[in-house]
TrEMBL record:
The lineage of its organism: Bacteria, Bacillati, Actinomycetota, Actinomycetes, Propionibacteriales. It holds the Pfam family 4HBT_2. It comes from the Bacteria. PANTHER family: 4-HYDROXYBENZOYL-COA THIOESTERASE FAMILY MEMBER, LONG-CHAIN ACYL-COA THIOESTERASE FADM. InterPro entries: 4-hydroxybenzoyl-CoA_TE (IPR050563), HotDog_dom_sf (IPR029069). This is Acyl-CoA thioesterase. Transmembrane segments: none annotated.
């Protein structure tokens, strides 16, 4: 069984390209998840609606989503049940008149029940497992790319936590981490592009995939945290960026982002300009 959520698309969800921003998708997934566990879930899963923390988000972007007065549909279901974690899968789509789907995003989230009063995870109860099992469609977990050590030449960006970033449990919301990594990545790209060329047009970049591992909760404080970004792979039309959010030597979260260079006219992947590619390769070698 799969849960279906009708998610409204807001005008403010768009970025400069007129697409729904990659960060906003993660907010949509959170809405669908809460709707599944609380609004339309049984009483056994009501505690899971907000009494969970996200351990990992793995998001694959398939096609751009534009503003539409029609809500976008989100299917979600369970792919794995463990003693203290469960994994949800999602598909974001519009249904065509012939019954086929225009798929915009496919994703998965690993969650653990959490006792916020004691700041500790807990095991799933028997009732919660039974209810979640009704949505179970087991799949093999996707292979994960090994963690690479941060190079000394990684780009630095100070992350200032805003009061509005914090949820009712005084933790920074899992969606906001995507914003932090996006801000750090854009700042890092700006530096690379300045090194590459001041005359050629900046490339059009879109996110193809993003994985975020959450390790330690981020809290509101006046001092900024440290975000680090570096190039870990350069391909023909895409490249990978690794990122870390840190408090001193403590890693709070890690991200792995695949970025695609796109031809603005054809709206298809294209090799980057030589100057930009050379700058990416130089950053990779560093």
């Amino acid at each position: 069984m799969r849960h279906v959520y009708e998610c409204p698309v807001r005008w403010g969800d768009q970025d400069l390209l007129g697409h729904v921003n990659n960060v906003v998708y993660v907010d949509y997934l959170q809405e669908a998840r809460v709707d599944m566990l609380r609004t339309h879930g049984r009483s056994q899963t009501e505690d899971l609606a907000e009494g969970v923390v996200v351990v990992r988000n793995d998001v694959g972007y398939r096609a751009p989503l534009f503003f539409d007065f029609r809500p976008v549909r989100i299917e979600c279901w369970v792919t794995e049940l463990r003693a203290a974690t469960f994994t949800l899968a999602y598909e974001v789509f519009h249904e065509r008149p012939d019954g086929s789907r225009k798929i915009y995003l496919q994703a998965s989230t690993v969650l653990t029940p959490y006792v916020f009063a004691e700041e500790r995870p807990r095991r799933l109860t028997a009732a919660e497992r039974e209810t979640l099992a009704a949505y179970l469609e087991p799949t093999e977990p996707a292979a994960r790319v090994p963690v690479t050590e941060r190079p000394v030449t990684a780009g630095h960006y100070p992350v200032q936590v805003r009061f509005s970033d914090v949820d009712v449990y005084r933790h920074v919301n899992n969606v906001t981490y995507f914003e932090y990594f996006q801000e750090a990545r854009i700042h890092y790209f700006h530096g690379i592009w300045q090194e590459a060329s001041r005359t050629a047009p900046q490339p059009l970049l879109v996110i193809a995939r993003k994985e975020v591992d959450y390790r330690v909760p981020v809290l509101h404080r006046p001092e900024p945290y440290d975000a680090w970004s570096w190039i870990s792979r350069v391909g023909n039309t895409s490249f990978d960026v690794r990122s870390e959010l840190c408090d001193g030597d403590t890693v709070l979260a890690r991200a792995h982002t695949t970025v695609v260079v796109v031809d603005p006219d054809a709206q298809r992947p294209t090799p980057p300009e030589p100057a930009f590619r050379d700058a990416l390769v130089a950053a990779l070698q560093d």
